[in-house]
Design goal:
alpha+beta; 8-stranded mixed sheet; 22 strands; binds flavin-adenine dinucleotide
């Protein structure tokens, strides 16, 4: 059953809530089954983001006992202050993954260091992984990126999808897997009457009018945020979340993150167990073809408290572009999976992400009240000379800023590669500042038009220095184990039976829109094929 909450969802949600209330790091439908030691499992899934969650649900539905390993914690129970997550304006230790100070994407306002705060190191929900010239933001916890993202759920234009992944049958994707992913994720558009009338989207209406003045088209982008709930937030009848400056450090209400959708349903099958605060470190293959994963269990200080060796018949990698690529690269370079091909570690891109702000005239305020959930974008992707899809983002400072903020997705052709650094035992991204230049040039070409038409300028005070464009961080890491190169056309790792990649590392660096719907749909396609053809269960 898809599209609505099923009995399975309710059972799974109850299991998540019970585990959270009891502070358990083993989550299953029956606590006894979840607590069992798992030195062997038929199927093992690493990570609990989009690709992993799809794998877990479809394996569980097929009756296959499945263990999910997630390095982050479960985000379900309120802390002593009464909330699960902290807000962007008052971040505490829950905000970031083992940092001493928050590292928000907008680091300053009017050049003032008023945004970031000192925090105690803790397994918080948002990580900023620093590579030379490129920081990558990722979610940590049961639900991966779905816990921290903006909920924008866009299906890419078919022509561009085919350009990026020509080996994938677009009829099957657009006829079956994109619709399935959208139904399961609970994707819906904002009701236009409310959008047009609420103060909370004034910033988006202002940006739309300014784009229009430059002859540019804007579109509504669907979302997994519950707009009925948001209306009640605005009416004062529900606790505010999107309307209370919550998003990148988690939403306490309103968002259909994966723990509410795929993962709840997966647990509800009774065949899926999730282990939290468990970080996969190494993968090897035995002579009988089974895989063994070395898993470090950590506590909330980050200390390793135990190390497990878990063997499985089928291994599904859903640790995200950075996580999956690092696991496979390490396995190849340290010789535990020496047969992995040279494509592992290649084809990485940040979806051409560029962030920028524009300064508006004083007579054109964007509003002190801004919903954190973006619902509109400038869509100039069909402009062959300079394709850009720019999400109209909020700047929810709680006060008038006269700023318009954007996350532009550009068609940057540059790709990075990862190398294994033995001293650090880590994958390091090779990315030069020059490789971000095409993305900045594309965003500038589009927004110069917007500024010219509205006689406005850029904001130079938002990124800690005097830059107008920030392309040294991204929200959309893609690639590293590209479909059809490091794997076959369905995510089967080349030369390694029953080893699969199901996450964003399959997409070669760019998809032209916010990526989680595509990642989910590709994982649905992989699981349908694998469960029909491969002998994964035992
Ligand atoms: C702030 C922010 C806003 C965003 N907004 C949007 C948006 O609005 N729309 C959109 O489409 N996309 C958005 N994205 C991007 C989107 O969230 C990602 O593309 C998506 O989550 C990637 O899915 P995935 O399955 O590849 O992996 P992820 O969702 O990244 O999940 C990987 C999981 O694996 C875990 N993991 C990693 N390594 C290991 C290991 N060794 N052992 C155990 N566990 C491990 C991680 O902790 C994580 O939970 C945003 C991202 C961020 C950071």
């Amino acid at each position: 059953m898809e599209g609505k909450l099923t009995r399975r969802h309710f059972l799974g949600l109850a299991a998540l809530q019970t585990a959270a209330a009891l502070g358990l790091t083993r989550i299953g439908l029956t606590p006894a089954a979840a607590a069992q030691s798992a030195d062997h499992t038929p199927a093992l899934v690493i990570g609990s983001g989009y690709g992993a969650a799809v794998a877990a649900l479809r394996l569980g539905e097929a009756g296959i006992r499945t263990l999910v390993i997630e390095m982050g914690r479960l985000w379900e129970a309120p802390d002593s202050g009464g909330t699960v997550f902290c807000s962007m304006t008052a971040p505490d230790q829950r905000s970031m993954w083992f940092k001493r100070r928050t590292e928000a994407p907008l680091s300053t306002f009017l050049w003032l260091d008023v945004i970031n705060k000192d925090i105690t190191p803790y397994p918080g929900v948002l990580d900023r992984v620093r590579h030379p010239n490129m920081s990558v933001y990722v979610g940590r916890g049961v639900g991966g990126g779905s816990l921290v993202n903006g909920g924008i759920a866009v299906t890419p234009p078919r022509a561009y999808f085919q350009e990026v992944l020509p080996g994938v049958d677009a009829d099957a994707m657009y006829g079956t897997y994109f619709p399935r992913a959208n139904r399961m994720l609970g994707t819906a558009p904002i009701p236009s009457d409310w959008f047009e009338s609420t103060e909370w989207y004034q910033y988006a209406r202002v940006a739309r009018a300014q784009a229009s003045a430059a002859g540019l088209k804007t579109v509504f982008v669907p979302s997994v945020y519950d707009f009925d709930y948001m209306r009640r937030e605005a009416a004062g009848t529900a606790t505010k979340s999107a309307l209370a400056q919550e998003v990148i450090y988690g939403n306490n209400h309103g968002k259909r993150s994966l723990d509410k959708t795929y993962l709840a349903a997966a647990l509800g099958t009774g065949n899926v167990t999730i282990h939290t605060l468990s970080r996969a470190r190494a993968i090897r293959r035995a002579a009988d073809g089974t895989y063994t994963v070395t898993v470090d269990r950590i506590d909330t200080t980050g200390a390793v408290t135990a190390t497990d060796e878990i063997s499985c018949r089928a291994l599904f990698l859903g640790a995200g572009s950075l996580g999956t690529t690092e696991l496979l690269l390490r396995a190849r370079e340290t010789g535990t999976l020496p047969g992995l091909n040279a494509e592992v570690g290649r084809g990485w891109g940040g979806n051409g992400n560029v962030m920028l702000g524009r300064a508006n005239h004083v007579w054109n305020p964007t509003g002190a009240h801004q919903s954190t959930i973006p619902v509109t974008a400038i869509d100039d992707w069909s402009n062959a000379a300079n394709p850009v899809f720019a999400e109209i983002a909020p700047l929810p400072a709680g006060t008038e800023t006269w700023a318009s903020l954007y996350l532009a997705i550009t068609k940057n052709p540059e790709r990075g590669t990862f190398t294994y650094d033995a001293a650090k035992d880590a994958a390091v991204l090779n990315w030069t500042a020059g490789q971000s230049a095409p993305a900045i040039a594309a965003a500038k070409a589009l927004f110069d038009r917007v500024n010219a038409a509205n006689v406005t300028i850029y904001r130079y005070d938002l990124f800690g220095d005097t830059r107008a464009f920030a392309a040294d961080f991204c929200y959309h890491p893609l690639g590293g184990c590209v479909l059809g190169r490091a794997t076959d056309a369905y995510g089967r790792v080349a030369g390694h039976p029953r080893l699969y990649v199901t996450d964003g590392s399959l997409i070669p660096g760019s998809i032209g829109v916010n990526p989680f719907v595509t990642i989910t749909a590709l994982a649905e396609r992989t699981m349908a094929r694998v469960l029909a053809e491969d002998d994964v269960g035992r």
